[in-house]
Automatic annotation (TrEMBL), chain A:
Record GO terms (molecular function): ATP binding; ATP hydrolysis activity; transmembrane transporter activity
Name the record gives this protein: Putative ABC transport system ATP-binding protein
Top-level taxon in the UniProt lineage: Bacteria
InterPro entries: AAA+_ATPase, ABC_transporter-like_ATP-bd, ABC_transporter-like_CS, ABC_transpr_LolD-like, MacB-like_ATP-bd, P-loop_NTPase
Gene3D superfamilies to which the protein is assigned, alphabetical: P-loop containing nucleotide triphosphate hydrolases
Lineage start: Bacteria, Bacillati, Actinomycetota, Actinomycetes, Micromonosporales
Domain ABC transporter: 2-225
Organism: Asanoa hainanensis
Entry's Gene Ontology cellular component terms: plasma membrane
UniProtKB/TrEMBL annotation, chain B:
Official protein name in the record: DNA-binding transcriptional regulator, PadR family
Superkingdom of origin: Bacteria
Keyword match Chaperone: no
UniProt keywords, alphabetically: DNA-binding
Sequence ranges assigned to domain Transcription regulator PadR N-terminal in this UniProt record: 21-92
SUPFAM superfamilies, alphabetized: Winged helix' DNA-binding domain (SSF46785)
Organism: Asanoa hainanensis
PANTHER family according to UniProt: NEGATIVE TRANSCRIPTION REGULATOR PADR, TRANSCRIPTIONAL REGULATOR YQJI
A molecular function (GO) term: DNA binding
Length: 225, 187
């Protein structure tokens, strides 16, 4: 469903990716592991059409992504992809439920319908009663679950998560992963989750390791197709 | 100082003494004395392998056809040189290539495998990656148990997960230091 072929990307003099190959099957939950600075986030950003590789190819659902212009990639991200980052990055001026509704609003859903759909996620992610809070009034784990709801609310085909538990203690982090994996399975969402923690990666179906800008462990093929 | 970790080391490594000696023999035919010296240097961790155990192990390996004894003219035990057989060599290879069953506290045996792999010019990083996959596969199983189970299952699974995680971090650290370890072993 998503594929990177021989992707390279440098930031000025710093090579971040040096020929990264990766295939993710539809419905698969893939953990991307590796030491810090090895290129995990850069790879995720290339797969998601946020960054454009210097060379190599990115394919999504049979379509070449890296050759699309910024407008087309931005539409792809909005319509097909969901995102969760290490620090929830909620909009502080909005309430929790408005934050979750944001992707729907941006995609043109009417406000009332968007808020209703967003609200449904609060029960699902153990967030009942927190709809009207602002991000400053949420604990780290709550904020991250709100961010997860925002990532999933538009029922994306792929959820990209970059260290989604990186700022949480281990129990809270596992709660987030449990809900992430449960929800993704329920709606058939493919997940690419970057993490350096083995206990987080153990929630995935499969793992690959990024070392020095290359993906190792490619011998383990996707378990679903 | 005889700490608990040294004790653990001896217990766990004890299981792999025959394979470790066989591995050392795969480099070149050796006398019992040289084997003991190399074993103590790389795997002894302050607790030398008794001569008695070296010769008893070698005798058992000879009986099982893993080594043959080449007797040189002269007196004393050092007349005997031990030579690994095909069967012995394939046993070492199988041991190096196969990941260990992912149970906690394996790092001592793993360490022996890594050092031997380096000595024998085998792909130590590949072996460690294979082990890493076996560990993570086990961690996935335990995570599944935890997600589906009651609190008791979850707590027991967590205990295994934390220990396997510790081993995995050791594996990652070792991979990151393989170049340095190779220099150390080659000295
Ligand atoms: N925006 C950037 N500008 C310059 N260098 C960057 C930038 N982003 C990442 N890098 C560099 O690229 C390499 C890979 O970074 P990254 O993909 O963030 O690694 P990881 O997520 O595995 O920690 C690192 O050396 C990092 O310093
Ligand atoms: Mg990163």
């Amino acid at each position: 469903m998503i594929e990177a072929r021989a992707v390279t990307l440098s930031f000025g003099e710093t090579p971040a990716l040096r020929g990264a190959d990766l295939r993710v099957a539809e419905g698969e939950i893939l953990a991307v592991m590796g030491p810090s600075g090895s290129g995990k986030s850069t790879l995720l950003h290339c797969l998601a059409g946020i960054l454009v590789p210097d060379s190599g190819e990115i394919h999504f659902a049979g379509q070449r992504v890296d050759t699309l212009d910024e407008g087309a990639r931005s539409a792809l991200r909005r319509d097909r992809f969901g995102f969760v980052f290490q620090f929830g990055q909620l909009v502080p001026e909005l309430t929790a439920v408005e934050n979750v509704a944001l992707p729907l609003l941006l995609a043109g859903t009417r406000r009332r319908a968007a808020i209703t759909e967003a609200s449904a996620w609060f029960a699902r992610l153990d967030l009942d009663g927190l709809q009207q809070r602002r991000s400053g009034e949420l604990s780290g784990g709550q904020a991250q679950r709100v961010a997860l709801a925002r990532g999933l609310v538009s029922r994306p085909q792929v959820l990209f998560a970059d260290e989604p538990t990186g700022s949480l203690d281990s129990l809270t982090g596992e709660h987030v992963m449990d809900l992430l994996v449960g929800s993704a399975r329920e709606q058939g969402t493919t997940v690419v989750v970057v993490t350096h923690e083995a206990r987080v990666a153990a929630y995935a179906d499969r793992e690959v390791i990024v070392r020095d800008g290359k993906v190792t462990s490619l011998d383990a093929e996707p378990v679903r197709s | 100082m005889y700490t608990l970790s040294v004790y653990m080391w001896c217990m766990v490594l004890g299981m792999s003494v025959p394979l470790t000696l066989l591995g050392l023999l795969e480099r070149e035919p050796s006398h019992g004395y040289d084997l003991k010296r190399d074993y103590d240097t790389f795997f002894g961790r302050g607790k030398p392998l008794p001569f008695g155990q070296v010769y008893a192990t070698l005798a058992r390996l000879a009986r099982d056809g893993k080594v043959v004894i080449a007797v040189e003219p002269g007196d004393g035990p050092e007349r005997k040189r031990y030579v690994i057989t095909e069967s012995g060599a394939s046993e070492v290879n199988a041991w190096l290539v196969e990941p260990l069953a992912p149970e906690p506290h394996l790092q001592t045996v793993l360490f022996a495998k890594v050092v031997l792999a380096i000595m024998l010019g085998r792909p130590a990083e590949e072996y460690l990656d294979t082990q890493r996959r076996a560990h993570l596969a086990r961690m996935r199983e335990l995570t599944e148990v935890k997600r589906g189970g009651n609190l008791v299952d979850a707590l027991l699974a967590d205990h295994g997960l934390f220990h396997l995680e510790a081993d995995l971090r050791w594996i990652d650290t070792t991979v990151a230091r393989l170049d340095a370890l190779t220099k150390e072993v080659a000295r």
